[in-house]
Amino acid sequence: MPQCQSEFVYADGALLICPECAHEWSAEAVPEASEPETVVKDAVGNVLQNGDAVTVIKDLKIKGSSQVVKVGTKVRNIKLIDGDHDIDCRIDGIGNMQLKSAYVKKA
Fold it and tell me: Any idea where the Protein YjdM N-terminal domain is (predicted)?
């Protein structure tokens, strides 16, 4: 089925046609498999999820600043994002930043 989920889809020979979006597809077509979700793991292999609390396991220098995120810093309510730095969070006293999951441990 097309993503529009139109109720006006009709068959024309071996094809199904949507008059609303003009999408055509084979009546025998297998639905495409959706891309599997990426699994983000911490430094010791625990699976992380949005809203988890983590602890920093290494002193992390903040680029462009003289501040350092100290080992043992607890970070609550993380948000997983795509990219090299896969955790978006807010650290008390520092503010919003992104961390790599390789430098945190699930609390």
Answer: 2-26
Q: Which two tokens stand for residue 66?
A: 């003289």
Whether 71 and 77 have beta carbons less than 8 Å apart is answered as no
Domain 1-33 maps to which CATH number in 1.10.1760.20, 2.20.25.10, 3.90.470.20, 3.30.430.20?
Answer: 2.20.25.10
Per-residue pLDDT tens listing for the chain (107 residues):
555 677 888 888 888 888 888 788 777 755 555 666 789 999 999 999 999 999 999 999 999 889 999 999 999 999 999 989 999 999 999 999 999 999 999 99
Residue 56, strand partner residues: 104
